[in-house]
Write a structure and sequence with these properties.
The chain is 46% helix and 11% strand. The strands form three sheets. A six-stranded parallel sheet has the order 8-7-6-9-10-11, with helices on both faces. A three-stranded parallel sheet has the order 3-4-5, sandwiched between helices. Helix 1 crosses helix 14, helix 2 packs parallel to helix 5 and helix 10 crosses helix 13. The longest helix is centred in the middle third of the chain and has 29 residues. The protein starts with a strand and ends with a helix.
Length: 347
């Protein structure tokens, strides 16, 4: 298994997916070697399959795919990919954000639409090359598999759902309330603090309805984190798994208004702990959470505010927790991955 060089210092869902899948594959009797960063020829000695994680790290992924094929190895690719929308380009580009303030959001998106192809084409070409070299594609959802068609993806696809450690994220566990969350009710988001995760809209909505807002996670964008704190959010930093589990369990709502998610591991963990979930409508979230979650348009503050208020009024149920814990244990991901491996070995 191979992943980007900064996977341990810039920890994310791709690294969690790799760690948890490897752990369960070993339980199935598969010999797994995890490699963070670039491989060397000696890394391939005795290896049958190279499993590459994350198509979004396009240059690194392309280089590693070429090495695997040069070594005549079968290549599995966990894509973890969703093409940026026009709204995402507008939201995350300082240039286009300035244009939006000058000419209006609607007009800026119209201009981006006319320029989208040359903006996206260079990355798409690199990613298409990686996809073309893979012997099997392992998207995390059928929605992601459909999205991959934009890269001229082949039909050798095995959907490998993301998962939850159901032993750890169990709402029946007796966990002390963390001392870094407010007394009384609060809403929670656990993610890197950056524009891509959309926490500012959540912080504004929480202030509007008088509910303390806690944003757990590494600060990637200090300016953005400062804007979130300016409207009342607290940013206690990264926390370990036990503290996160306890924070999920005690939260009034878990809110993940990301600009895209495939589908959001923290949202799944919070759901497993019995916390109601409000999440983005962009990405594969509906495929995982169905009618049990509340969905927002992260590019529209009124949508965030309206659905936030609606979620506050709903009674706390257990349906989502049961659904996630029953349907998405990491063991299922390992079994699907192993099925893909077995097909490659037989080919």
């Amino acid at each position: 298994m191979v992943i980007r060089p900064d996977a341990d210092t810039q920890f994310g869902g791709d690294r969690v997916q790799m760690i948890e899948t490897a752990k369960r594959l070993r339980n199935l009797g598969v010999d797994v070697i995890e490699k963070v960063g670039a491989t060397t020829p000696t890394d391939y000695e005795g290896v049958d399959i190279v499993h590459l994680f994350n198509l979004q790290t396009r240059l690194f992924s392309l280089d590693e795919a070429k090495k695997a094929k040069a070594a005549c190895k079968r290549l599995a690719l966990s894509t973890i990919w969703w093409e940026p929308s026009l709204e995402l380009i507008l939201e995350t580009s300082r240039k286009w954000a300035m244009a939006s303030r000058a000419i209006g959001r609607k007009r800026a998106i119209e201009i981006i639409a006319g320029k989208a192809e040359p903006i996206l084409a260079p990355d798409r070409a690199l990613q298409s090359e990686v996809v073309g070299m893979a012997d099997v594609l392992l998207p995390n959802s059928w929605a992601e598999a459909k999205e991959l068609r934009k890269l001229d993806a082949h039909d050798r696809v095995v959907v490998v759902p993301n998962g939850v450690d159901v032993d750890h994220y169990d709402g029946n566990r007796d966990l002390p309330r963390p001392d870094w969350v407010p007394k009384g009710d609060y809403v929670l988001c656990a993610a890197r603090i950056e524009r891509l995760k959309g926490q500012l809209g959540l912080a504004r909505a929480a202030r509007r309805y008088g509910v303390p807002c806690v944003l757990v996670g590494e600060v990637v964008d200090a300016e953005y984190a400062g804007r979130c704190r300016s409207v009342g959010a607290t940013t206690p930093g990264k926390k370990d798994r036990d503290e996160l589990a306890a924070a999920y369990k005690n939260a009034l709502l878990y809110v993940q208004p990301s600009l895209r998610e495939t589908p959001g591991l923290a949202s799944m963990e919070a759901a497993a702990m019995g916390c109601p979930v409000v999440t983005t409508k962009h990405g594969s979230t509906r495929e995982y959470f169905g009618s049990w979650a509340t969905y927002v348009d992260p590019f529209d503050y009124q949508s965030i505010s309206r659905e936030f208020a609606a979620a506050l009024r709903r009674p706390r149920g257990i349906g989502l927790s049961e659904h996630i814990r029953r349907t998405y244990p990491w063991e299922r991901a390992a079994e699907a991955t192993n099925t893909a491996y077995e097909r490659l070995v037989k080919d």
